[in-house]
Amino acid sequence: MTTDADESFDDIHRLIDRAHRETTEADDIPASLWTRVRAETRTNIVEETPTMSMNPAIASPVFVGSQPQPGTLQRFSGMVATLAIVAVLAFGGWFAAMNLPPANNGQQFALLQATPGIEMSCDVEPMTVDQVMAIVRNPMPYMYVGPTASADVVAKEAELMRQTGKDKRFALPQILDSSRSVTLTEDQFGTASEVTNAYLGCLLTGTQAQVWTFYHPASIQSTIMAKYPVFATEEEVRAYIEERLDQPATLGENNWATLPISDPIVSATINPDSRLAIARASYLYPIETVLFVGVILQTEVNGVVVHTNGNGTNLVPNNAAQTGYADISLRITLVKPSFSDVWMVVPLPSLEEITAF
Amino acid sequence: MDHNGIEDDDAIVLAARNDVDAFAPLYHRYARLIYRWMYRETGNAETAADLTAQVFVQVLQRLHQYRPGEVSTFRSWLFAIARNLLRDSWRRYRPVSLPEELVDHRPGPEDVAIHRSLMDDVRVALDTLPERQREIVELRLSGLSMHEIAEIQGTSENAVKVAQTRAFRTLRNLLHQEVLT
User: Fold this and answer.
1) Is the N end or the C end of chain B the one with fewer CB atoms within 10 Å?
2) What is the pTM for the complete model shown?
3) ipTM, 2 decimals?
């Protein structure tokens, strides 16, 4: 007995077979390919090792990895130029992207602070100066595996890039220029939520080195290098990183220190309603998913003062009248390669700012 | 599609562990299927040939890692390597340019009729599928069973069936006119 699925498959199979036959190059495998395979196959065939995993989450070891070559800061001056777009986005965008109306009620801009012991915490292992330096030198091998990936994983990524000759750049505006809406699965949104909430905890109670563990590598590089001209020495940059590592995250450039909220925040979380998030997948960069999520900030005195959606729009009606705070436009941007479950924060909240770039 | 002879794959693999040339029958059995898959992915004969070659180089280098008892068939092991290579090497680092099909050149209907091949339509349709569904379609086109695909994707046969049904429905809709005319 045939089913609809069988019939569909037969139809599609016939059609695709026809497509191949009508396109000669799509059907004719080069006759010399076997000879080439033989030539490229090393005579010392890999000896007994643990079997390859069939688990799709574990990619096959395509190439034997090698450590990326360290270089001077001059060497990555060109890379800084290529990533300038990210730097501009990260720094040119953040404050303007807040879209904050003038503060009313004579509020003073003050460093945000979490109330000690109330919900907010940060327990991630901070990045070391060596980890940060490696990313500043070359963020590319970290693009798909995250800034805290192990040396082995990073080495494999670097080798893959060398072999393929394609160290694809990350540029959010270009992703969004050619993208389509996608619906995340519950699992995907759940993972993104965990990352966002942990990030928020560290943003308000952690150190710079802890917050960087959540960042997209290009953002880490731009965070560091935006402070320096491209001819900075490696020692200077290292010293700057060392200086910043243990500083509170609230002192960083990409934080919420300028939010006009004066009373302590008791809770900062992702807006858990996935329907209010915006997820986009790129045609241009097929591996990237970009997710914009709203946040909920609750203060000790005024309760929920920020409750935004993926557009950053505050959903609290008459917020200023109720809380004494002006409406605050705020959201968090995350990106995820399709090849991993690593969600990384791009400290740039505004779609308007991105598309205007 | 060549389904014949897969029962002797393991015997050939055993022989090829000591003599790479003994692998030739398996190369000829599967190379065209892999090449076609790579072509549908890349739309470029040279790239498809490169990827196909890489698949078989890897397979030959890792023949000693293949254990018949641990996977249902040799071809499921082979296609798992092909699939992982596609994920690791091609999809991840493929050229950063819009696929020609997605560039809106606004051609007239006649231009479309003249320049768009059936293969273009097929590739555009396959590109719309989520990655997992596309893999299922590609592996089915390569002759693999539900069981083998489930094994490669690390999921259940039922999950594969459900995803396959969705994929076929999408493809049928997209390729409707071509299929039925």
Assistant:
1) C
2) 0.49
3) 0.84
